[in-house]
Amino acid sequence: MPASERAIELLTAAAEAAHDKKAENVLAFDVSEQLAITDAFLVASASNDRQVRAIVDAIEEKLRVDFDAKPVRREGAREGRWVLLDYLEIVIHVQHDEERAFYSLERLWRDCPTITLPSAVPDGAVSGTSDSAAE
Q: Which UniProt keywords apply (predicted)?
């Protein structure tokens, strides 16, 4: 069963908010077949700790204002190197470039279908998109 429509909506809004704050390499994965705890992952990166925190703040504000959604868990915000936001339907990873390169989440989840992000998020254009793609 592919990611839910609500998960795709949250993911798309979060990707747009991240892109607005100059996030790099914004990618989305449908992990619903592999994990029972969430439908999708959003992964984004930034070149410094301050920018990581700004991206996280923008995502949280966008999802709170537009969807009345608040993360059930928020980890790593103090350090600003790898922040995880858990919204149950989606999990968002905003990483410093160094952590992104070291942990390579996209390699870990490469067997999962990618979710096409809107054209407003150009880094989201990845081959092998999911049937549950959002436009």
A: Cytoplasm, Repressor, Translation regulation
Residues of the chain with pLDDT under 70: 120, 122-135
Q: pTM of this prediction?
A: 0.87
- pLDDT the model gives residue 122: 67
The identity of residue 123, as a single letter, is D
Instruction: For residue 122, count other CB atoms closer than 10 A to its CB.
Output: 10
Kindly state the helix (H) or strand (E) to which residue 19 belongs, with its residue range. Answer: helix 5-20
Q: What is the pLDDT of residue 2?
A: 87
Residue 55 to residues 38, 43, 83, Cα–Cα distance (Å): 21, 12, 10
Rounded CA separation 71/94 (Å): 14
Q: Which residues of 44-53 are buried (b: 16+ CB within 10 A; e: fewer)?
A: bbbeeeebbb
